[in-house]
């Protein structure tokens, strides 16, 4: 299997406990991606891991809006925002990478969704389309094109 060059990177996004089986916002079959991520990561010199990293009481949580339910929405300052169950709270077990995902101790990890009032679906920028997550800077620093 070909190993990618120094200007290439693999970005692994949100392979976190809360998005896998038994998590607060699990995706059916979410655990199934872990072996593929590990196999692909072995082929890259640079692997960057993106991690949802919400504050307690994040504005995207339904629990932060009286009378609102998960999967409803509200009008945020940047537009319509889906309301989610509490998930990937900073420092929680749900915010940790899946236990079978091989994340080296020296890995580059970019955290997203950490601003209290702005969610982040993209690993590159927050939902306001202005605030960056730091991923672009991390890739530049690694020499990734």
From TrEMBL:
Residues 9-144 form the Isochorismatase-like domain. Keywords: Hydrolase, Metal-binding, Pyridine nucleotide biosynthesis. It is an enzyme of class 3 (hydrolase). GO terms for biological process: pyridine nucleotide biosynthetic process. The keyword Nucleotidyltransferase does not apply. Pfam families: Isochorismatase. Pathway: Cofactor biosynthesis; nicotinate biosynthesis; nicotinate from nicotinamide: step 1/1. Its EC number is 3.5.1.19. GO terms for molecular function: metal ion binding; nicotinamidase activity. It comes from the Eukaryota. Gene3D superfamilies: Isochorismatase-like. Belongs to the isochorismatase family. This is nicotinamidase.
